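Intended use. Records like the one below are meant for learning the mapping from a protein sequence to its folded structure. Do not use them to infer anything beyond what is encoded.
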Amino acid sequence: MRKVLLPTLIIVAASLLVLRIFYLQVIDDSFKLKSDNNAIKIKYDYPERGYIYDRNGKLLVSNQASYDIMVIPREVKNLDTLEFCQLLNINKEEFLKKIEKAKVYSPRLPSVFLSQLNKIEFAAFQEKIRKFQGFYFQKRSLRDYEVNFGANVFGFITQVNENLIAKNPYYNSGDLIGRQGVEESYEEILRGIKGVKYIQKDKYNREIGSFKEGKYDTVAVQGKDINLTIDAELQKYGEELMINKRGGIVAIEPKTGEILSLVTAPSYDPAILVGRQRSKNYTMLYKDSIAKPLYDRGLLAEYPPGSPFKLMTGLVALQEGVINEQTSVACHHGFSYARGRFMRCHCHGGMLQLHRGIYESCNAFFGTAYMKTINKYVQPSYAVDVWSKHVKSFGLGQFMGYDLPTGRRGNIPTSKTYKRIYPNGGWRSTAIVSNAIGQGEVLMTPIQLANMMATIANQGYYYTPHIIKKIKGQRIDPKFTTKHVTTINKKHFKPIIDGLFDVYNFGTAYFLKAEGIDICGKTGTAENFAKINGKRTQLEDHSIFVAFAPKNNPKIAIAVMVENGGFGATIAGPIATLMIEKYLRKKITRTDLETRILNKSLQGQYAKLGGLSEAVKLEMKRQDSIAGKKTLVSKVNKDTIRSNKK
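Structure written out for the chain above:
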């Protein structure tokens, strides 16, 4: 038996190998497509990207036809370079540079020579393309923006780079891919599937028909349409209100976690990143290190949250049982929390309880509540971790899992934080009490602030914020319909909400009321320092405001952050009120606030940081257009942008 076993195994293995070789060489031709590049030409049929709509079905992004000139360097022969360059309006140096780049990629494979020709350029070149051997057209579709706002939401499409081509076999040289915004997050859904045609060539390199009668050809599948959670009118209005300002606005529907508005300022018209001028315009935006128009402040900007964080301090203190609604704290226009340590306060002073502490934003009350929370436990390190766990249950201090490709986690300190700061130990609640009022080591992004307010509006739960509402023929990710419950008992939210409601009735936002809408809100400021001429300089505080409305059955939660805006009620507060009224009523009754905010410019403050960049000047022109200021400059700019698109 043993004598027969080894020969048998050899015979079986050899037989299987012969059969496999026979199958690959005689029966299966698919490998011939990859190996026989001289005899077979591959043509791709690129589908249209899926359309993008807002939550109400308004079309935001569609497509327009575009054409790339492709080149196969080895096939370029007898070319009249002068005529070719004149026709495409390029010089000989540029021509040689592009040819050399194509050769480096591959002498025998096609690559993009000149991208994104419009219809007029295409028609002119098409008439003479027969004279230019080795060149051909590749039809593609580019984005066509129906609106001139929301650039940070949409993102843009650009050519793939060589690193991505090496990693992902789907993409070839010249292919387009989504970058930033929903174009990146939902690239595989929006791009569709490109079709492939295999063309047989004869020994003279002439096309003679489909390889194997089209047996291996595939048909292009158009990308799927998507509906965003964004309300287009609210998004547009938010960008209008942020004219000549820097900052972010995030609005969320509390009951679903749907993002209603995601504003960053300054921004740009998405149309300038389409067409032949895309690269030049992107470089201008990218190099603007002052205004940072490509930097989404709603998702990336980390700030000390200031007074809005007092709501978290109060909720944790209630949950830990160290205060109740009747707890009274004396405020002497500040809080003396240690020998020689005094935290100033702008409230009216006297004996305060939780309710008044919220609507007057008393530092003494919440400083005391925080210290009681930490001092409840023997070990401050353990106490901080208990406090941190409660706060993080609101989605703070971590990446929130939303469906946009960028973001920051913010910072909610733990015992590890203070072990690094105080390696020798010995710290107590007095060393970290500034956390109570949203200073210290606490950092939050505007979207985290908005989610915090949505969670309070829901009295203890939230859904992961997301920007996708519907995908044609497909369900959205179930994580966006999964409820997250905080560690705070539901009963503790009512006194906090009552205090927030009276911020508009008796407190720091009493002059911001919109008649007939019960708004719950909280003002805040954050200290702002910058290096100017190598010196640390304190600038005007950042203006912060958070709110939700109506008080009962809330439909919108919002966070507004305006850099160098001063007190929370000065600029951020009015913006929040106007955004809430716009969403709930579809019109504005507080026209006094609207006029003041639209006319308010902080460019003087920003000029201290280095003047106005070209990107900001372009943005100011766009904002003029958005606001309906029909100046010659804005008209010329708009015409230029539309021309570049073509």
